[in-house]
From TrEMBL:
Keywords: DNA-binding, Transcription, Transcription regulation. PROSITE patterns: HTH_ARAC_FAMILY_1, HTH_ARAC_FAMILY_2. It comes from Chryseosolibacter indicus. Residues 175-276 form the HTH araC/xylS-type domain. This is Chromate resistance protein. Gene3D superfamilies: Homeodomain-like. It comes from the Bacteria.
Amino acid sequence: MKWITRERPKIDRIACPWLIKRFVDNEAEFMYVPSDKVIQLSKEHGAIPFDIPNVEYTHYGDECTFDYIIKKHKIADPAIQTLAIIVRGADTDRHDLASQVAGLWAISAGMAYNITNDYELLAQGMIVYDGLYTWAKLLQHEKHTQNPFENTLRDVYQKFLSEKKKSKDVPGWAKELKEIIQDQIDTNLTLSLKEISHSLNVHPSYLSREFSKYFGDLSFGDYIRKLRIEKSIELLKDPNYSLAEIAYLTGFSDQSHFNRIFKNLIGKTPAVYRKNLREK
């Protein structure tokens, strides 16, 4: 069967062909034409018009054409129901409907900008929606972590969140976290509280507040910087390390960043500090 819609698709006019090909008619053909030609050409080619006003396959209320196809063809796959919310949010600027909405909009807008041939855009879009469907069906509960340490850190925080604090004693999670961070200082430690809070599904401000209670009233970032500087002081005693190497080994973005943080905390630059060590 042939289907026809407006040219220059972004969301619904890519998502709907994917849904039709995968769940309604795998032999379906699609045409993208100027808006004012859709109805005329649909009659000439015997094609079903979609995602335009005043046709059967279109928006109804707050729902988009993707939703209508699901209902019309009784598609009961739970993964498709998940996809429908994301597609609807991206197609109607309802980014509050699901956390994936903004990402789908960004990818779709970028692809439409880069690819000017609608049929090439559709081919690439089919791959995107295949991936999104696989995520919805099999991977919704999977989380990406930057490295094994972040995974361990997440486990520690999860243990804390499951505990009910009954005293003012330092909780086990804080002691364990301190040991883990100290162990990692030797390995070019680069951590972001925002990334960690995202992986935990906990607001960053909450973690920041709880963290400072058990780490000398220091924020997560200040505590990490303090440990980096302490490690750099040990490395400065070894003349085999250049200042640039020490900056790298202690997780700073570059030597100038290292110099600035070091001077703020110690009161002198690393070069002056090292010179004073040699003069003793």
